[in-house]
Amino acid sequence: MSVIFGVNPVIEALRGDRRIVERITIATGARIARFEDLMQAARAARVPVARQPAAALDRTAGTRNHQGVVAFVGSAKYAELEDVIARMAERKLVVLLDGVEDPHNLGAILRTAECAGAAGVVVPARGQVGLTETVAKTSAGALEHIPVARVTNLVQAIETLKASGAWVAGLDAEAGKSYTDYDFDGPTALVFGGEGHGLRRLVRERCDVLISVPMFGAVTSLNVSVTVGVVLFEARRRMAG
């Protein structure tokens, strides 16, 4: 059993299907934002709601930053790679991460990927942060909606995506081709490296094309979650046009 807290994460957990919400606790006397939305979602999911003093919620959440709402949920479930591929038929985009270790980065990436309408996110089983509660909180509810597939071998996953008809583009700071010059005209798998090390050699070699986000300032790189947002929304804009 895990704990999530905050109004939006709890509402999205109730509305999503990635894990089961067992029960919800609301701080006695607290003024809860979106209270009616929260209660309606709880009733629809048949989840019991109890009142407790705010101090009890502080202890359960390990923080006072719970907005007066705490939920007890089952562990987040990983999807299968085939589930993500099936969604690509409509959504066209998928995100692959080559070893993102910071849970805040992964949570931000999941939020961005869901907002951009990606089919899912694919992560390796090793060298990658898991679906922790920090990830869930940072994703602002996106974890409850977007499939996250965990694979033993990312290189094999790339080959599987290719066989399904996807074109694989890796983000590499040294690539000569800008992401703005890439033609996003079909199902596309975008591969992003982890913090500090970028794409591993074998992953880079399996990509159909390497693209970069040009830098114009003194700092020569972006945070990986920012890079994902920049490239994903450009890809979505091109596909929509």
Radius of gyration: 19 Å
In the CATH scheme, what's the topology name of the largest domain? Alpha/beta knot
Work out the helix count: 9
- For this structure, what is the CATH homologous superfamily of the largest domain? SPOUT methyltransferase, trefoil knot domain
Overall form: elongated
Enumerate the spans where pLDDT stays under 50 for 5 or more consecutive residues: none
- Measured distance between first and last alpha carbons: 44 Å
Mean residue pLDDT: 92
Order of strands, widest sheet: 7-6-5-9-8-10
Largest sheet descriptor: 6 strands, parallel
Beta-strand content estimate: 15-25%
Considering the chains and any ligands shown, give keywords for the structure.
single chain; alpha/beta; 60s Ribosomal Protein L30, Chain: A; Alpha/beta knot; four-stranded mixed sheet
Describe this structure in words.
The protein has helices spanning 7-15, 35-45, 54-61, 81-91, 103-115, 133-138, 154-163, 201-206, 224-240; strands at 2-5, 21-27, 49-52, 69-73, 93-98, 121-124, 148-151, 167-171, 188-193, 209-211. The longest helix is centred in the C-terminal third of the chain and has 17 residues, at 224-240. 44% of the residues are buried. The model has no long low-confidence stretch (mean pLDDT 92). Helix 1 (7-15) runs parallel beside helix 2 and helix 5 (103-115) packs parallel to helix 9. The N and C termini lie far apart (44 Å). A six-stranded parallel beta sheet has the order 7-6-5-9-8-10, sandwiched between helices. It folds into two domains: 2-73, 2-Layer Sandwich (60s Ribosomal Protein L30, Chain: A), CATH 3.30.1330.30; 81-240, Alpha/beta knot, CATH 3.40.1280. The protein is an alpha/beta fold and 241 residues long. It is built from nine helices and ten strands. Strand 6 (121-124), helix 6 (133-138) and strand 7 form a beta-alpha-beta unit.
